[in-house]
Design brief:
Distance between the termini: 93 Å
Strand content: 15-25%
Number of domains: 2
Number of helices: 2
Number of strands: 5
Largest sheet: 3 strands, antiparallel
Strand order of the largest sheet: 3-4-5
């Protein structure tokens, strides 16, 4: 095998036993292939990151045009995070996550009222 100006000229090994030098070359070729694979994965991750940034920007643009607003709070009694979707004009609650029913259960769990949590109201 002759190496000139960083170019490898292939030489047939017909009937010859590979030398230590050819084993080293094979290891180097495998290392280069691994680096090329890693670079491809990195490019794919960068592409995915760019796609995600683009999607978030589109969602933000859309939300600016929708007549809805989001309100983030923490329920004091249960300690749960609450997201409320409001109508911008009327400030009416459109949807709340978690729902008020779930917050009631969470509050009861937080209080450990008599060690038993009532899932049903005793009011009729």
């Amino acid at each position: 095998m002759e190496i000139t100006n960083n170019q490898v000229n292939p030489v047939a090994l017909e009937g010859r036993t590979p030398t230590k030098a050819s084993s080293v070359v094979a290891e180097k070729v495998a290392a280069v292939a691994t680096v090329e694979t890693a670079l491809t994965v990195k490019r794919d991750e960068t592409s995915l990151h760019e796609s995600l940034k683009s999607a978030v920007a589109q969602i933000n643009d859309y939300m600016q045009n929708v007549e809805r607003s989001l309100q983030f709070t923490i329920d004091e009694d249960s300690g749960k995070d609450v997201v409320t979707v409001l109508d911008k004009k009327t400030e009416e609650i459109i949807r709340q996550f978690p729902s008020e029913e779930v917050l009631v259960i969470a509050r009861q769990i937080a209080e450990q009222k008599d060690g038993v949590v009532s899932l049903f109201s005793s009011q009729v």
